[in-house]
Write a structure and sequence with these properties.
Blueprint (H helix, E strand, L loop, with lengths): L1 H7 L1 H13 L1 H6 L6 H21 L2 H17 L7 H10 L3 H32 L7 H13 L5 H15 L2 H9 L1
Length: 179
């Protein structure tokens, strides 16, 4: 809502919030106490600061964008996936220097908590005689169904599209595709 309010005004933001509240996936999962809810709050704040950064180019907005990204990464790594899209939006708006600054600052702010967590957990694991899998081993474990051939990329893609329809609803998927 923050980004919509900054870019399109309070009435449009309220309509967007009502639409989001009515989507099946948010209605179903929105009441769960889990880490996604505070992380999405951080992403929403980052989106608002991103819009202000695009509009005004103030360093304070970039700093607040970085703080929101950092706070989101303190909760979960999922927020890190939004930073590249914010940067692409900045670059596609023709702000090359701002996009580079946003990539550097947002990337560092997002990765810093994750790096600190990785360092701390590996240190603690060594103290108790455990070894943690490397990032490569973790990635192979997550991608194993695609890599070992048990799930084709086409099947994976079809399942994602089916879930979009189930979780979000086909009318909203059509609206999102229409832009």
């Amino acid at each position: 809502r923050c980004a919509v309010r900054e870019s399109h005004g309070p009435r449009t933001a309220l309509i967007a919030l009502a639409l989001a509240a009515a989507t099946p996936v948010l209605a179903f999962y929105g009441t769960l106490v889990n880490y996604e809810n505070p992380a999405l709050l951080c992403v929403a704040l980052a989106a608002g600061f991103h819009v202000r950064w695009l509009r005004d180019g103030r360093t304070a907005d970039l700093g607040q964008f970085a703080f929101a990204c950092c706070a989101g990464s303190c909760v979960t790594y999922a927020g890190a996936f939004f930073v590249p899209f914010f940067v692409l939006a900045t670059l596609s708006a023709g702000y090359i220097a701002r996009g580079v600054a946003q990539a550097l600052v947002g990337g560092a702010a997002t990765l810093a908590p994750l790096a600190a967590h990785a360092f701390w957990t590996s240190h603690v694991a060594k103290e108790i005689g455990q070894t943690l899998p490397t990032p490569g081993q973790r990635a192979r474990e997550l991608l194993n169904p695609l890599l070992d051939g048990s799930l084709s990329i086409a099947t994976w893609g079809i399942r994602q599209v089916e879930r979009l329809g189930t979780w979000i609803g086909w009318p909203l998927v059509a609206l999102a595709l229409a832009g």
